[in-house]
Amino acid sequence: MATERTGDPAAEVLADPQQLLLAAKAPWLARQDWARGIIYDRPGLSLDLWVPGIMGCIFLGIAVAFAWDLPRQMRAGGWPALLPLLIIGPLGLGLTVRSIHKITRWVKYGGSCLRLETVPIPVGGVCRGTLTLSRPIPAGQEVKIQLQCDLATVHEMRSLDQSTSQDTNHQLVWQDEETVVSDGSGTLQVALAIPKDVPGTTEQNPKFWYSWTLKVEVPDSATSYCAEFGVPVYNLAPTKAQAQDAQSLEQSRQHEQAAYQPGPKFQARVSPMADGGLEVVFPPMRLATHAITWTVIFLVSMTLFVVAVLQLPILASAIWTFVNLFIFTWLIKIWWVTERVVIGNGAISFTSGLFRVTQTMPFAELKAIHAISGPVTKLSAIRIRSTGWKYFDMGDGIRDQRDAEWLAAEMCRAAGIQPAPAVRGNESAEQMEIIQAFVKDFQGGKINFGPLGNALVDVVGRQKRDSDKA
């Protein structure tokens, strides 16, 4: 059962024999910080800060040594001498820049302390606490508070020599966020409701486990404040008071969202149309993850290609050209290409891509319009979904989830449907529904692939039927 913390939680655990007995059954008491309800974020002691920084400096040193000796190596070994520089150079640069950002953030803000009101936090309850910073965030600055549940899955791989290795894949299961404004005091209040149908924290095992993380950041730049805390959210029944608190918090948030209006940082252009419809133009996706890094990689790759092209075999030159072309077209898209959505006249039209291809979806086929996690930026985006398998993802890179939810609601009203709740963190379940709908239509022959595609599908289908008869 959930235990309320009113005094010193650690003293309660140590003084009460029943609490000591409960510790054997309550896994959250195995961690001293969770048992006390006081969790620290100490970036200066994190291996995630120092190990990548040291490795980045080493890789950069090796890259400089390769570059210094590159003319001699090119004369001796030809174009393969470029490969170490192409791999080690960008890797060392990326790790070094990342570490510099983290060190700058640590020097500027120091560590943080989160004091939880309830340990453990039950699903269906509220994650409440007080966050204290070593150095305060300036008054008036918006701070994003994000709570998420992740699933870690361990995959075992066996190589040709029968040796095995393990790879851990992390998948977002659920996520929610709120934005608060700093008062300059150095403390922030945390309050996020947790739904009843999400998994709680589980112990690590050789197969999979669930974990919960509270992330607090100022989303202005790479050196702005950012802290992460592992929090004890467990699959326990909330008390009546905790359930009422969650319900009250959720209702209050719905009222705030209904009255919300985007601020000046919201860059999408929303324009009402004369017929009652809506036009939305999304700016280029310049917030794409590592966009600047990939731009630097592209420039370095092109420079090396121009230097070495005369010594490259034709096949290597063709492959390198294709890779550079792919990166170049992707960079053009995220830096300069806009997306346009028009809702009206009984349909939704979506124009995107370098060639400005327009797709349409009639209102009769429309199922929902809601906010999702951006496929590239991992911020917010908008998804328009049909009753079948068709969908449009757009606007990737919306910084504030409230802006995305407001825009989705406006688009729903223009299309004449009820606003749908956001599915941030639950895209995998929705994606599975879309795949199942596609498979059903494909098996029923309801998908039009065009003349050439339909002919190819018919040929493959006949070959499959003939092989089944044989």
Overall description:
This protein has 470 residues and is an alpha+beta fold. It has 4 domains: 161 residues, Sandwich (Immunoglobulin-like), CATH 2.60.40.640; 63 residues; 120 residues, PH-domain like (Roll); 46 residues. The protein is 40% helix and 28% strand. The chain has 12 helices and 20 strands. The strands form 6 sheets. Strands 13-14-15-16-17 form a 5-stranded antiparallel sheet, with helices on one face. Helix 8 packs antiparallel against helix 9. It is globular. The termini are far apart.
CATH class of the largest domain: Mainly Beta
Beta strands, count: 20
Total of DSSP H or I helical runs spanning 4+ residues: 12
The percent of residues in helical segments reads 40-55%
CATH topology of the largest domain: Immunoglobulin-like
- Low-pLDDT stretches: 1-15
Q: What would the average pLDDT be, to the nearest integer?
A: 82
Q: CATH architecture of the largest domain, please?
A: Sandwich
Number of structurally distinct domains: 4
Largest sheet: 5 strands, antiparallel
Q: How are the strands ordered across the major sheet? A: 13-14-15-16-17
- What would you call the structural class? alpha+beta
